[in-house]
Every structure is written in C-alpha cells, then in structure tokens.
Amino acid sequence: MTKPDLYEISEGLRVSGIDLPSFGAHVPRFTVELWRLLTDGRPISPEQVEKTFSSLGITREVLTQLKAGLEYDGQGNIVGAVGLSLNPASSNRLQINGHTLFTWCAWDALFIPLFLDQTVMVDALTPVTGDSIRIKLTPERVEHYEPESAVVSIVVPTTGAVSKATMAEDIWFAFCNHVHFFSSREAASAWFAGKHYEPLVLSIEEGYELGRLRFEEVLKDAER
Fold it and tell me: CB count, 10 Å around CB of 39?
C-alpha cells in the first residue's frame, strides 16, 4: 500500500468536499459549537440551536448548508453533527465528560478531539476480528494508544463526492464506510484485499496530524 505525504492526502480530501468552509462561511464555527454541545451527552434542542445562532451572530441558513452533516431525533433535536453523534453509528466510542459518544468513522475520532479542549479516550473495535483499539488524545497530541501497531485506513473520495452529499448516509457511503482502525498494517491489508480500491494506511499519529492539516483554518478560527 503506497502512502502519499499528508499534505497531498489533505488536498485530495479537500477537493472531494471534506472542507467545512466550502459549505458556507459560518459552517465551521457552527459545527465546532455543535461538537462542544454534544459533549454534554444530551440532544441539542431547537432552543439551544437558536441561542447558538444568536451567540455566533449567524442565521438559520447554516442549517440548510450543513444539512448532509446533521442527524436529528424524532423531536427535532440535533443528535449528531459532522462525524460526532449520540447515536451508535459505528464501533468507535469516545469517552468525553463522563459521556459516551460515537463517531461516524475512525478518522473523526482522531481529529474532532482537536476542538474539544479536553482529554478524550477512544475505544474502538476493528472490522471482522473485533480487536480493541484504545487511544488517549488531547488537543495537543496523541498521548497513548494500544496496540502499538494500530493504524487507521483513509480513502480519498472522487472530486466532489462529499460536497454533493444531500444526507449523512451519502457521506458514510463515500467515505466513512472505508475508514477504520486496524490492529496492524497486515490486518488492514487483509481487510481491503480484493476490493476495488486501495486505501492509504496511516499510523495513529499520522491520522491525528492529517486532521490538524485538513482543518487547520477551522482550528485557528475556533481558537479566536
């Protein structure tokens, strides 16, 4: 499995549509605020959303711009946003503030903690074998993970594949369903053998740094 440098991968992801600013000028700040609200372990009510509009000085238009990245419950509360969810959408669990949340894919579990201003514990299961991957992350670094051979798979969707999504399931199909943790590079190779595409396999540290590169501008804006 060949591995381009992280800058090349980041640019490929941007072109595919994994680029929050491209959805709208206020989408990045709104998304980060939703992530932070979800760490309270409760659905985000319409009233909380309205308060967020007011505090950020933005309009309801952002909900339409971010439509494909949002999950709602039956009462109209937001329960998931751009990779972070209260729903068990995957086997990637995050322990935050004493609450268990889930991510849409393995890479989400590596880059979303960059925005949460606290330590996050990741507990994930690998495909098929169910091997456990445990990772301790802070906004500054990867503190620890086991097993030491653990890796994350990344695919670069075709140009515009993500930006054309109209619902969360479209993003899952184009990207998330192919992005997993594995206990080793050999395990990743075995999982993807015979599939019609070849993934990139990164170390846990590389996956974390890729997130910092891809969302560098969003991170700077969130820190203002």
Answer: 20
Please provide the size of the chain in residues.
224
166 vs 76: CA distance, rounded Å: 18
Which residue type sits at 83? G
Query: Which has more pLDDT, 164 or 74?
Result: 74
C-alpha radius of gyration, the chain, whole number? 17
The pLDDT of residue 147 is 96
Print the SS3 string covering 97-160. CCEEEEECCHHHHHHHHHHCCCCEEEEEECCCCCCEEEEEECCCCEEEEECCCCEEEECCCCCC
Domain ranges of the chain: 6-222
Token pair of 21 as six digits: 């600013």
Handedness of CA 98, 101, 106, 111 (dihedral sign): negative
> Pick the residue with more confidence: 22 or 222?
22
User: Helix or strand or coil: residue 166?
Assistant: coil
39: Cα within 13 Å, side-chain hemisphere = 18
Q: What is the mean pLDDT of residues 186-191?
A: 91
Residue 1 near residue 185, CB atoms below 8 Å: yes
Q: How far apart are CA 132 and CA 126, in angstroms?
A: 7
The pTM assigned to this predicted structure is 0.91
Phi-psi region of 33 (alpha: psi -120 to 50; beta: other; left: phi over 0): alpha
CATH number of the domain located at residue range(s) 6-222 in this protein: 3.30.450.410
Closest CA to 33 of 77, 76, 81, 67: 81
